Structure prediction request, 509 residues.
Amino acid sequence: MKIVELIDVEKSYQNPILSKINYAFFEGKTYLLLGENGSGKTTLLKLIIGLLKPTRGVIYKKTNNIGYVPDYLDFPRFLRIYDFLYNLGLIYNCHNIDEKIKEQAYIFQIDPLLKLSDLSKGMRQKVLLMQIFLKDFDLYLFDEPLNGLDKEMKEIFLRELKKLKTKKKTIIIVSHLPDCFLDLVDVILEIKNGNLYERIN
Amino acid sequence: MKTKYIKNILLISLVFLVVLLLVRKIPNTIEIVMVTKGYNFVQVERDETFEISFFISTKNSNFSNQNNIKSIAITDEINYLKFKLEDIILSEEKVYLKNKWYYNVLFSLKPLIEVTNNFTLEMIDAYLEIAFKNDSYAKLSIGSFSYYLFQENSQNLSITKLKGLVNTFNNNKRLVGVLIGIKNNTNKQIKITNIYPLDLNIKVAYKDIIKCNDFIQGETIKEILGYDYNLFEIEENVKLNLCVDDEIRIFIPLKYIKDIVINKMGFLIEYELDKETFYYCLDDFLFFESNDYLVNLKWLKFYTYEDS
Prediction:
């Protein structure tokens, strides 16, 4: 069953980025989205979330329960990891937030009492990943999720991703490191010159 | 006979078509103007409301009718804060922007969140999401948004003075610094380690902080500091270490991350007492009234919406 469908979707800023894209994402599938810098990968994710509006065309979504890991986020300045995640848990209407944060902190090997402003790049990435695992989303979008992670952390993240796949969640990943995901993905997509091309993995 | 019959059929079809066109509800195109600026909301009591205003080209629309609105949220890439729409105030005053008249609409909102402790949410690139009962929705850029709920405020210190210095910059009024009096209510030394303006576009210039008893409104920041001051040059990695034994009055110069109008803001003071970190929240304060953003089109975002 389709979870997101793009019909004649175009997006332009000063120049056209995406041109007349027609594509359907299906439930339970894992997609890897490739393309050069500035090709429109992040734009496509933001169109799916609804943060951007297509210049033309429509996007049908079966769900609005979408989790997103952006490639960068300005964290609140004076909070600890725990408070940040706890507040997110509250706005996500999560149950057992405290338990979930402790579980994620254990998985990603980070002290939740650290102040967000003191974190290194790799640690910030861990927090970005931890927030998406707080809630049970229908659709998971990851924009460069391996940024700043060491080899061990990459493996841990891929293990967590496999768990989502086992639960038949729909996953869309944007990454400059496609080889890491080849065992996981069902469909590889590439944005080239504003068009979206599909190849089965 | 046959020709007359065809003529009648054509006439009936034409009348039917005209009636159909008249009866069909044609969606109105509404233009919306959002002011992208630094929105901040400090809530010390749960009853306080957050107000956000924007401009619409048509007086009667879904945007100005509370009964047509299903839900309101402020959102970004990962955050989604729902609000209860308390009231909509449609102003009779009109503004003229890009060859068109617009009416001012003000939404009065209350966060819909169950919290027992303090709560902080900061969004550098936030959107006002309005879902209508006809299943359409509008997502409108508002600039930055930050929400601070401080239900448990520290009693170790109190504020004895608060006064903003407003200067003119590029023909716009700007809050360039704040005079704060801080009183230590304990018998131990308090060490202030950070002063956070509760707006995402402003920082405190720690290295330019001076002790100051008062200033006269109308003085420039250059006159107070005694040297040229750049409002946009952000200093990095400067630590604050300000000891308060009894009471101090300091002038805090501000830096702007973005060229934006901020006229209302609170502060969060981070301090150490007995090697433990505490926070004191200074509720948001209206430093000056401003409509300056209306003369600068770069702060305005124009949207169109099909109102059906």
